[in-house]
Structures are given as structure tokens and as C-alpha cells.
Amino acid sequence: MATEPCAxxxxxxxxxxxxAKMHFDAWVRLAGEMGRPFxxxxxAATFGRRNPEIIRYLFREEFTDPQVAEIGERKETYYRTxxxxxxxxxxxxxxxxxxxxxxxxxxxxxxxxxxANLDLILKITKSDEFFEAIVGMxxxxxxxxxxxxxxxxxxxxxxxPSRCIVFEDAVAGVQAAKAGGMKCVVVTFAGHHPAERLxxxxxxxVVKCFTETSADEVLAMLGG
Length: 224
Description:
Layout: E1 7-10, H1 20-33, H2 40-46, H3 51-59, H4 65-83, H5 93-102, E2 106-110, H6 115-124, E3 133-135, H7 148-157, E4 164-168, H8 171-179, E5 183-187, H9 195-200, E6 205-207, H10 215-221
Parallel strand pairs: 1-2, 1-4, 2-3, 4-5, 5-6
């Protein structure tokens, strides 16, 4: 058991699950409707950002906040329609969730995605029971690499940042974790970022999938 309270904060897309293609296809469809192509480079450049930031980056227009909200919700509707057909947790995730819970480690979700997306993914994968707090787009004003999303999650759990480990898959997520004073374990299973770039960003541990780490190792990284 954890001797002092500690927490794991999970990113979702690319970490809990791999829904990148679903998101990419939704952005392609939306951008096409608005008369703009959407490339893999666009996807890489906006990965981990909040929808308002992505929309203004892509279209370079002065949309009102309600317009941005409508455009973002249209994209997420396309995404959720496909996601509802089936999403699975990545290898090793369920066992790690269970073991962390058994050892008394607090767990939260910290993601740039809208809350409706997060609720859907956790429901489909039957993993919502493991999370004491969920932080999404609506809870923040700044996207990764700003640490806000992880700091809000730590605050909701009542755990100091120094006692938190972030599970991530993206460079911006690693940078956000380190900026927030947290350790970071990165999984490369989805293959969106080279391991070397993730290490350069400050990752404390890089694994191919979560079968390569354990709840005991997480506790050891936090000093027991």
C-alpha cells in the first residue's frame, strides 16, 4: 500500500485508448466542410491542444466563442459517432488500473478532450470506476504543454504535484507534466511520437506498452 497519498493522472487518447484515427477522420471531414484540407502535419501540430486553440490555428479566422463551440461540437459529434462502435483499452491498462486501485493510489483523468468524449470512452471501456476525478477541456483555459490540466486534476484529488505521476503518450503531455512538477511515464504503443523525443521532453520512463511497468514500480518512482 502507498505509505503517503499519491496519484496517477492518465491522459486518454493514445494512453488509455488509441482513437487517433477516429479524431483525424473527424477533423478531415470538418475541415473539408469548411473548405480546408487537413493533413497529418496539421494533426501532429495540434495534438493535445484544446478545440478552441485547434480551430483558431486551422482556420485563422476571428470566430466568436459561440461559433468556436459550434464548430468544435460538430467535430466531436463526428468522432463520437464512430467511437460508439467500439473502443478498447490499450494492452496492460486494465491490469494497471486495478493494481493501482488495490494499492490505494488515487487516479484521475487529465485530458484536453471535451467531457462528453471522456465520459463516453470511460463508459465503453468500463473503466470509469477507477477514477476519482475527471478533468477535460471545459475545466481548463490552456492546453498542453501548459500544466493546467494536470494541476487541476491533482487539486481535485487533493494530492500535491510532487506526489503525482502522469501517464502520457505525447511530447506536449510530457512537457506539461514536468512543468507541473510531476513525474511522467510515457507509452509509445500508439506510435505518435519517437521515444527519443519523449525522453528529450523529460519523460522519466518510456515503455512500449503498460505491460512493461507495474503499480509497484509507480510507487517506487514516488519513493514508496
